[in-house]
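For practice. Supply one:
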Amino acid sequence: MSTTLLEMDEHLDRGAGVIGQREGVDEREGVDPSRAPMLARRRRGAGERPRTGRGERAGASCERGSGAGGEVGGSHVPVLAGELLALLDLDRVPPPQLAIDCTFGDGGHARLLAERLGPTGTLVAIDRDPTAEQRFSALAAEAACSLRFIRSGYAEALALLASEGVRADIVYFDLGMSSMQVDTRERGFSYSYDAPLDMRMDPSQQLSAREIVAEWDERSLARALRDFGEERHAGAIARAIVRRRERAPIATTLELVDTISSAIPAPARFAGGHPAKRSFQALRIAVNDELEQLDRALPIAWDLLREGGVLAGISFHSLEDRRVKRFLAERARGCVCPPELPVCVCGREPQATLLSRRAIMPGAAETARNPRAASARLRAARKLAADRAGESS
């Protein structure tokens, strides 16, 4: 829904600034189609969950990433906050009326945005973590704008909003896990603390990192480590996990760290940061279904936008950043005819204009204040009006 995800833990002992928001969920709850197509604007409202006729099924969550470097109104200052607010174009005419924060976390970005929306605006906050809902209550007690909280994964929550006929001027994601999650030792996200092996963004879901480590076969473990952590030694680590659990369960984070370290050659073990960082990232993604959440959420978020609305995403590792980049680039793409054709015959028109040619990264001052922010990448696009799309092609 925080910093570089691979480097988060490495800064815990350096006194680096606290990290901010995170990402996703996998409660996989259905949406009740009978709900009225309207947004129930709740001033200082309580949270809610999407409803389903099949009952709730626990899901997964994501890594969130905004790093923080200070305090604002009791909340951590999120990564790239000024840059995000500038891209959201809050001074446009007419001003934005409805914004959706898909990864509320500690509420750093949401607090700043709520101040700018003012009494005529509405902010919808989404998060699956019950701790985030508690932080939302504190924001709701003081914000001037109307507020609504949906405790859910953002893919499910966005689908719910779409079923209600909601249209937004702003939708943004701050992907990754939050500081409040990594710093709560018993949640088991960090390889720097000895804690129960868990890593669930939603504590009520069934699947945890301990279950994956205990039950997945060697091939599945290796695939997850390779695909979700880009771990070079995925096969060796998976074999080490299977061998160790045959002797005794791997129940804590440090037991897993020891197992991972034993499988990595000594030269690699002492190069490129903590030897367990990529494996822990991979397990978090697998537990919380983070990438599938993002793949499902981006198209829904885009459809929710009004013409002229802005979709933005802050990512902290390449797996998420590539998805955001490709999604926005595809919407901004116009003619796809072969270059040798003298005129366009495909009729394809761009749906968006990119708001920066490249990803926006934290400046030197921000990274000096908060080294965890160094890997943050911000991308955004504005949805074109139908008549302007033709002009842009």
Observations:
- Residues 2-46, 51-75 have pLDDT under 50 and may be disordered.
